[in-house]
Amino acid sequence: KKMNGATSRILFQRGHQGTRCLRRIRRLQEREYSLLSYTSTLQSSQLQRCVAAPSSSPLVALSTHHRQFHSTPAAPSDNLLGHSPMARSNPNTKTTTPAVTPKPISPFGVDSNNSGGGIWEQTSTKKTKLNELLTELNERGIDTGSKGMETLDEAAVGEEGLDLDLVDGMKILVKIVDNSEDNVNTISEDASSQYENQVINTNIEQAAKQATTRLFKLFENTTEEEEWTKDILESKMNEAIRILSEGCVPDVSDKKKKPVAGSLDVSHPFCYLRQFVASDATVVDNVSGNGSGANDDDLDPSIQQQIETLNNITTHALTSSTILYRTLLLRATAQTLLNNWDQLTTITSGDIDRAAISKTELPSTSQRATINAKSIQNVFEAYAHNSPQDWVQSWWKLIDADKDGLIDQEEMNNCVDLSIEPVHLALGDVFDMTLEVCPVRTIGLGGEEEARKKNAWFLGVDAGDNEDAEIPTNIPPVKLSWRNRRKELKEQKILTKTFQATIARHFRDQAEAPHRLRCIYAWAEKAHQDNKLDSVLVDASEDWGSGAASAVMGRKRYVELEPKISYSEFREVQKKTFPHLDRIGEEIITSFKEDLWLLQGSKRQNKELKRDGMLFLLAISVVDLGIWFV
Fold first, then answer.
1. Nearest-5° Cα angle at 91, 86 to 92
2. Which CA distances in Å does 6 have to 12, 19, 481?
3. Is 113 helix (H, G, I), strand (E, B) or coil?
4. Is the distance from CB of 395 to CB of 415 less than 8 angstroms?
């Protein structure tokens, strides 16, 4: 029977009293044994009688008087006075060296997540699900050992491979920008003019370059000492966004605009993202014209000419896409500066306490009124020409208002967040522009299936046995039926939603940026304050304690000032602990591809589950019919 509350309380009290009685008896046994062991006048028979059996009561067996004990049990840590809690649990025992067992190797190998002692061991559900998909492919007899996760590309069903090709092209694009050495060889006037053709619209590339030139004219007369107020910064950044938007064609800054189905512009470089294929380290050589291809002397002249035309179109598209992506990064940087005035000018609590110690006056609003204009120009120059390492350093100098190279931990976190935000915005624009100029499925091209395969060479679709002497480059857009339009918009919506989720979650959740930044600050060898806390007493202000009375009475408050960190100290630890910052764009696109693998794999699993369920129901129905007829 179920006990009520009163019965439960009674049983609990009795059980607690019984436990206390057992403890009291054990303490009495131990005390009497220690007393009698030091008494020489007692006989052995008395000792045997004193040390009674556990079943007998020591209170009856002992005839000597002994003191009563309190019912409160002794603390188990009484023998640890002065013992460090970080030492071994029992200080009275000798230290024994534990057996060293080798740490199991991660199934993903040793990378930046687990090379530092397994602090960020990859146990995410994403990795677990990807391993599950690979295991299913192994069960079907597909070899996954040579290519690893890339084997999931071959498992794509139908035109799902077009999405993976799009991600691969975007990865090559952002990798060129993330790597400054590749950037020097790729974006050059010679490479652009060498591969010019009648397909890619050169006006798009020229508009992006002119917009970048007009942007930097806003900083022509900027001096080292010039400071901008919030109003000046807003006017400058709004003008910069307007200029750069004119150089980004088509303009997708209006997020309220409805998506277009069946839109096609083969003259736009983003239309050829699926044709960007990396072959080891030959991407730079192919772009600069120094690649050494295979011997094509045995090929038919018409086929060889067609291959050269295709290579010229793709190479020119890659160069123009890189320039356009840089322009989008600059526009995103201007938008980031416009939206984050408070983070750039807010004075940290540590700076306020240091100013109180040194009797330095600070603004009453705890915010700086101006920001250095030259530092803003350096931020734009970094995103226009340099790598992510320089992006972080430029934001570091912008946040460092006193120009001593040192910032607080809170400012360090803001610096990293601000350096990542323009990449998020720019990649979102690249993705939206790609959907504007090229459909995600061949059904968005309209017409019959054979015509779509013939015209969709820039999507990477195999045309079969149809080998034309000329590559069709002038493909007029057609009006789609409502059914095809609905399918195209559905695929666009799925891709857009997945990409937005990747941008929002990757660095925050999957790369664990907040945790890594805490570790970077804790592990860095900071020279400021000898890497120690500085304990000081600060005069009370009207905002603390009892208000104005505390300041009048001279009350003080205890403050612990954490040391500041320099960029060189940050960089030394960041290279080992947080290398994701050196490839911001590549990290996001790689995570996006993993999300697509999961999406496509889940679809395959759901389809198989439905099929197995229908077969099971069919078998049950047949058995029921057989039983009914019998």
1. 170
2. 10, 20, 74
3. coil
4. yes
Alpha-carbon distance of 523 to 533, in angstroms, equals 14
pLDDT digits (tens, 9 = 90+) for 392-401: 999 999 999 8
DSSP labels for 300-334? Answer: -HHHHHHHHHHHHHHHHHHHHHHHHHHHHHHHHHH
Per DSSP bridges, beta strands 565-566 and 406-407 are: antiparallel
Show contacts of 41-46: CB within 8 Å, 24+ apart: none
Other beta carbons within 10 angstroms of residue 513's beta carbon come to: 19
* Spatial distance between the Cα atoms of 275 and 199, rounded to a whole number of angstroms: 15
User: One-letter amino acid identity for 466?
Assistant: N
**Nearest-angstrom CA–CA distance, 581 and 334:** 20
SS (H, E, C) 170-223: HHHHHHHHHCHHHHHHHCCHHHHHHCCCCCCCHHHHHHHHHHHHHHHHCCCCCC
Alpha helices in 464-566 (DSSP H): 482-505, 513-523, 548-553
Say if CB 364 and CB 270 are below 8 A apart. Answer: no
- The tokens for 238 are 């709004």
The pair phi, psi for residue 190, each rounded to 5°, is: -65, -45
> Considering the entire predicted model, what is its pTM?
0.74
| pLDDT at residue 338, rounded to an integer | 94
574-623 pLDDT, tens per residue? 999 999 999 999 999 999 999 999 999 999 999 999 999 999 999 999 99
SS (H, E, C) 354-386: HHHHCCCCCCCCCECCCEEHHHHHHHHHHHHHC
Cα angle 66, 69, 71; round to 5:
155
Q: Count other C-beta atoms under 10 Å from residue 48's C-beta.
A: 10
* 90 DSSP assignment: -
Q: Is the peptide bond before 250 cis (omega within 30 degrees of 0)?
A: yes
Q: How far apart are CA 56 and CA 547, in angstroms?
A: 69
Which residues lie closer than 8 Å to 473 by C-beta, 6 or more apart? Answer: 198, 199, 266, 313
Q: Determine the Cα–Cα distance for residues 331 and 238; give it in Å rounded to an integer.
A: 10
Question: Do 445 and 439 form a contact (C-beta atoms < 8 A)?
Answer: yes
| Per-residue tokens: 575 | 């290279």
Exposed/middle/buried for residue 281 (C-beta within 10 Å: 0-12, 13-18, 19+): exposed
| Token digits of residue 282 | 């030959």
Q: pLDDT per residue over 514-568, tens digit each? A: 999 999 999 999 998 888 888 777 776 545 444 444 444 567 777 788 899 999 9
Element (H, E) at 2: none
Q: Residue 450, Cα to own-chain centre: how many angstroms?
A: 42
pLDDT-based confidence at 255, cuts 50/70/90?
low
118-145 burial: b if 16+ Cβ within 10 Å, else e: eebebeeebbebbeebbebbeeeeeebe
